[in-house]
């Protein structure tokens, strides 16, 4: 819900979303509102002073004195001061005839210095105000700005703001941004970490979201099943040919072709056709296809996010995730926040005693899974020539049942007495995933 307030002179209006932010007004005047802002997800209060300076120099002197007094109470807190000061700090912030403003500049700069304020990094337009005069006396000034104290700078070193082009007002809007400096993969991991307290607060306020989602999905499945049955009863006989064509296409797409030669000879160097897909660069479409190929209900990794979260929010964060993955292949640097895995053990028997009684399951982060899928996609072209023919499982074109059928063939009639003396050895035979090396 959006809330708001204004000072008693109706010159300054402050609006916020009370589901995200708590606002406590500490003091106010005709030219300022001084408030404590608390982000509910972070629980770290900050002090913010919104400014709308008077047009007269004498009236602004009262504002400068007020700011210096407020600074004494913000020595130990992060403090931000922003808005329309109606004053400039340097002649470079004025374009056009503006009279003698040197005294006003000195008073403004003295107030900033005495208050211990520093300018926040700015992007965008340099001038924030224009008189929009049709006469030759056009005037541009930089009247709007954001200042912070040193504690704010230390706590939020990457914050900046953007000065946009004026629209309906003669002043430029100032947009507060939180920039994360670092390689794309680091930026993604930091933003995902910052989302966690917001999700925890949302879960606390809205109750059992997972249960509500399951109820909604169940209702949706029921409606879709009813619609599908009605459509089948109406069009089933007419669409038989279409369904058979889809089945044939699915079988053709799912078919795995043999990549190793028929003689079992290991090739040391791939030929030109095999080398071509190994050296080409990945594209954004490759990253998206790998992400959407991951099953949504797979176990989450250490970061706590599933592939379903990334798929749902792909329009928002898809570009950043893509840059992070492509940056890894370009630079070869994988952060430890991504390259970490949770090892979960699932008991195979009711009363496990030894380690062999558990199934080990590796829970990896989604970005790590995307990178692994892309690597497998390229290596699958030559994987059959790199792995020994004795390895029958987990290789396209081979089957785990091949060795079982081969052993059964060898032992057929093995106990016949007319054959010469012989023996068989069972060496380290175990099921897949019984051990982790």
Q: What is the strand and helix layout of this fold?
A:
Elements (H helix, E strand, L loop, with lengths): L1 E5 L6 E5 L3 E9 L2 E8 L6 E7 L4 H16 L6 E6 L9 E2 L6 H13 L3 E2 L2 E3 L4 E2 L9 E2 L2 E5 L1 H6 L3 E5 L10 E5 L5 H23 L2 H27 L4 H15 L17 H8 L4 H9 L14 H6 L1 H18 L9 E7 L10 E7 L1 H14 L3 H4 L14 H10 L27
Parallel strand pairs: 5-6, 9-13
Antiparallel strand pairs: 1-2, 3-4, 4-5, 6-12, 7-11, 8-12, 10-11, 13-14, 15-16
Helix pairs in contact: 1-2, 4-10, 8-11
Q: Please give the share of residues in helix.
A: 25-40%
Q: Hey, roughly how much beta strand do the residues contain?
A: 15-25%
User: What is the succession of H and E elements?
Assistant: EEEEEHEEHEEEEEHEEHHHHHHHEEHHH
Average the pLDDT over all residues and give the rounded result: 77
InterPro entries: Endo/exonu/phosph_ase_sf, Retrotransposon-Effector_Assoc, RT_dom
Domain Reverse transcriptase: 355-437
What would your notes on this structure say?
By secondary structure, the protein is of the alpha+beta class. It folds into two domains: 2-179, 4-Layer Sandwich (Deoxyribonuclease I, Chain A), CATH 3.60.10; 181-205 and 272-386, no CATH class. It is 39% helix and 18% strand. It contains 13 helices and 16 strands. It has helices at 57-72, 102-114, 150-155, 184-206, 209-235, 240-254, 272-279, 284-292, 307-312, 314-331, 366-379, 383-386, 401-410; strands at residues 2-6, 13-17, 21-29, 32-39, 46-52, 79-84, 94-95, 118-119, 122-124, 129-130, 140-141, 144-148, 159-163, 174-178, 341-347, 358-364. It has a six-stranded mixed sheet with strand order 3-4-5-6-12-8. A three-stranded antiparallel sheet has the order 7-11-10, with no helix packed on it. α8 packs across α11. The longest helix has 27 residues, at 209-235. The model has no long low-confidence stretch (mean pLDDT 77). InterPro entries: Endo/exonu/phosph_ase_sf (IPR036691), Retrotransposon-Effector_Assoc (IPR052343), RT_dom (IPR000477). It holds the Pfam family RVT_1. Residues 355-437 form the Reverse transcriptase domain.
